[in-house]
Every structure is written in structure tokens, then in C-alpha cells.
Amino acid sequence: MEQRMENEKVTPVTGAGFDPAHIPGLTPPVRESESEEATEAAEPAEEVTPEPEAEEPTREEPPEASPGKEPEADGPAMEAEDRRGSITVDATGVRFTLDDQEADFTWDEISAVEYGTVRKRLTVTVHMPNSRWFPNDVEAPDKARLAEWTDQLDKALDTYFEE
């Protein structure tokens, strides 16, 4: 598949070619504490004497659920995986994984989702409003599992995706 290029005026893509974080959902955002640590490491450290801190009573809080990791129970979800990657469609959006990389797409940033099957392979492509698309595919162990995945995917897309 080839992406369409405009012939009139071609501007080079500066962000995605040099920085994988430029593609939304491909890498996790940098937390403020990590960026502060990086700037503090660049500056010479001043000697600080530790002051005794008053102990605060510890209260136990329930563990926070990691965002996007668990689908909501009130709607259909589809998860297809093979030895290298997975495709998950649930109430939060579409999530692709391949080896150690992960891409998350929320429903409000997706303009279209298409899928196709060839033999025992399911290919799901997420289209973005800026004319970019991101495909991912997984191989089913048998054709019955592939049919199950496509049925679940149809139900999930009908439920969550607005036309």
C-alpha cells in the first residue's frame, strides 16, 4: 500500500522521520518528573543538608487502574493476538502492539477503521483525520478463531465507532 503524496507542493516530514514520539500513541508521553530530572542532571548539584520530615499517617488507597489497559465491562471488546503482536478494540479505542512497541488510538482521534482477512491473517487499519493510516495484523491459529475475531470486531466497531 502506498500513501498519496500531493504533487503541487511537497513538504518534508520533519517530526516523524527523526522522532518516533511525533506519531501519536506510538510512545508514552514524557512525564514532568523525568524531564525535570534530565534538566537537574545537566546542572551542577548543590549540596543540600537533609531536613527531618514529619511522618504523615499512611492511608491505603486502592491501586489505580492503568489507563487503557483494561476494557470497560459495559460493552463488547475484541482482542486478537499472536506470537508477535496483538490488536485490541474496546471502549477506550484501538490498541496495536508489535514486539515491544505499542500504539493507542482513542475513538475521538480516529476517522475510520477498516479490516480485512487473508487466509488466517486479520489486518486492522486505523485511519486518522490527517490522511495517515496505521495497519497492524495478527495471525489466527485456525479459521474458526479468525471468524470469531471478525464477529467480535464487527460488534465492537458498531458499538463504539460513530459514523
UniProtKB/TrEMBL annotation:
Residues 56-72 have a biased composition (Basic and acidic residues). It comes from the Bacteria. Residues 1-88 are annotated as: Disordered. Residues 34-55 have a biased composition (Acidic residues). This is Uncharacterized protein. It comes from Streptomyces endophyticus.
